[in-house]
């Protein structure tokens, strides 16, 4: 009796994780989608007009001024759309736990999207850092000294995007564990 | 006879890929290590002194002037060291094709290093783009107009790093396929 109970104990947790992992995957995808959407919206609507102006120049900062921020909004939007579409495949994995090829496809797509998101977040972070600190060697002035509110918005936006980057790492790890359970 | 030959055909390529995949993994790691090492060295030794000077100012560009480039050199060096160390684990996977937990650990480490490398490359790319084109809205001057040779070096360095990023995507995909063969 003791002998027969041992394999039962070993098999059951494995079966349970096989069920639980796709559900965690599904939930993480939703959180990551919200995170990237928030980042894209927060950056896309960031604008500040200073309360003074000359006859010809209006002092205004919008995200389109910097191509890197346009790339950031684009990459976050693309990744958000991908995450929403991938919910269908993730749901399919909850229902049919034996699908293998679709899981490998998902690892590939997740890795590509992880790369795209990380690129957008890191590039924007480099520019935000420059906006805050400037660079005396290159004679680049820290624009945050004027555009304080604008800088707060874009900093928060980049932080949200980095949260999604960490969630993507978890997604890839979850997929690898799921595949190993076959 | 025909019936017995079918499963044989199905099994053999699977066994062969089980052997071939770790070897490809090993070779890709070597190429990626060379690529990151080259990028780190190329960026780390990039310096240019302009042929004119004033009494007090010497016009000189080195990578340490920009914190993003320091991060780039650091991230490429760390990833290169990781790739060299991971060769041992990769070799172990060639010898023992049944190791599963170590493969999952490798996917996790690869994903983290992929993220680190992508961050360094994308952040440096954002600054290199700025150095080439400048930004009139933020009054950031394109320093490449003066430091031509310096800019060529850092651009090449970033391209090398992005090659390693693509190789990392292949590594993660290879690991996922390897794990699925169990």
TrEMBL record, chains A, B:
Main location: membrane
Signal peptide (from-to): none
Pfam annotation, one family: CASP_dom
Superkingdom of the source species: Eukaryota
Subcellular localization, as worded in the UniProt entry: Cell membrane
Annotated keywords: Cell membrane, Membrane, Transmembrane, Transmembrane helix
UniProt topology in membrane: Multi-pass membrane protein
Keyword hit for Nucleotide-binding: no
Transmembrane segments annotated in the record for this chain: 26-46, 66-92, 104-131, 158-179
Location of the Casparian strip membrane protein domain: 19-167
Similarity comment: Belongs to the Casparian strip membrane proteins (CASP) family.
Subunit structure, as described in the record: Homodimer and heterodimers.
Protein name, per record: CASP-like protein
Organism: Stylosanthes scabra
